Amino acid sequence: MIRNQIAEHVRQAIAAAQAAGALPAFDVPAIEISRPKDPTKGDYATSIALQCARAARMAPLAIGQAIVQHMAPADFIGAVEVAAPGFINFRLSGRWLSGLVATIEAANGRYGDINLGRGQTCQVEFISANPTGPLHMGSARNAVLGDTLANIMVAAGYVVQREYYVNDAGTQMRTFAETLYRRYLQQFGQDAPLESHHYQGVYMVDLAREIVAEHGDHFLAMPAEETIAALSDIGLTKILASIRASAEKLRVRFDRWYSERSLYEPGGTFEFVLGKLREAGVMAVRDGAEWLLTSRFGSDRDEVVIRSSGQPGYYASDIAYHYDKFVLRGFDRVINVWAVDHQNQARRMPYLMAALGLDPARLTIVLYDLVRLYRDGQEVKLSKRSGDIITVDEVVDEVGADAVRFLLLTRSNQAVMDFDLNLAVAQNDENPVYYVQYGHARMAGILRKAAERGFPPEQWKHGDLQLLGHARELALLRKMLDLEEVIEHAALTCAPHNLAFYALDLARIFHEFYRDCPVISGEQDDPALACARLRLVAATKAVFARVLGLMGVNAPDSM
User: Fold this and answer.
1) pTM for the model
2) Which end of the chain is more exposed for a tag (fewer CB within 10 A), N or C?
3) pLDDT band at 388 (very low <50, low <70, confident <90, very high)
4) CATH superfamily of the domain spanning 430-551
């Protein structure tokens, strides 16, 4: 990245100044290169002169001037200046910026890739909704966040696995099975009312009808517990198939579906990890229950692993599952995408990691807030089809996967998402996804029009990039240069909404370029400049496609 090149250039200048006696000997701290708050000051800046003032026993301005005076020429630097109280500001060379087009062309669709991960393995576990019903819009946000994060981590140099953790054990699955059992009996006129804790959704009636259509009254003659167990397995298979289909509508696919139930198989992971923890002396028996002593690792309380009833506690699955991830499967890094109502669980995960002898920094938990749907200015809470929850399928069918994915990334995951169904289908600049996709389509249209007017790719692909010097051209190049930093920041902070912000900025800057810099305007075209600008348009189109691809959004050539 250019930021790193500038940092190295500054480091070499400091060493040269020290060798020449212009600066005294001192240990040089890490050189941070940032963007000036005022863009008129330059493209990048460093406060290294201020940082070194005490060690050098010199005024920051004098240090900055010494650094600049001993700075070797570099093709990427157009100008350098020292500004009070000691900042060094850098302006990129226009000639070097124009060469970015060739870099984008050579990247062959992978422009923006960085080597942050250096081939480390990273598992992204997301959605993982309880398999007790169809996916709703909260799960859609989880899906889009997780899938986009996985794309970002691949672009950042990690080897990524996408995983869905199937919560097929515990009380919720028991409740699901009991509900389905009663709905099944109701299909045959039997009196089997639901209780308040059962799943009330209409989808459970539909599920029972499906089972009756496939199996008839086969389960009526069986003992109740056998019927409940059989219906649980059938219902789980059907719900998982529904979840898989809904995820695929959002263009989400998983490398693995991991069963929670498998953790508790005889001789399985839970038994193994429990034995390890007992051997390590971090378990204790109190009040008939067995506790993990997380208070030894900084927590304000210990956690129940085995209840007094003999059943696993709330955190038992987390312990076994994360041991499996980090130790048995050996992932270097794990990212879990959880709803905000799991924040207390997330807060305690570092202590569980430490108790397992694992570095808590290897686990990142991304929490996201709820999604509210609006139509005609009014919040929509119930489905038109069933009067029940609004499913992912309904929203995707209405507005399309592109709109769902893009709009769900236009807010930080920590903010409540207000999803406007009217906006999602609007074909105007107020609709962010339309605005960005129209930018890509406009670029494709320019290239088609150019071919019709006698500028086919074989003519302009060797255009002279040094002709690109207009302020709008350079602004577009600067924005495309930012992509590596955007990907790095999104990977480091697990904040995929940065891609949506970047795409909107790039679209705006492109439209300004298109307004002020005619590419092919008719008989008055300068053929050489037209060819250079067509290369710029094609490069921008490639960057647009790259960003939209990372977001899982289509890049249309016409609209």
Assistant:
1) 0.94
2) C
3) confident
4) Isoleucyl-tRNA Synthetase; Domain 1 (1.10.730.10)
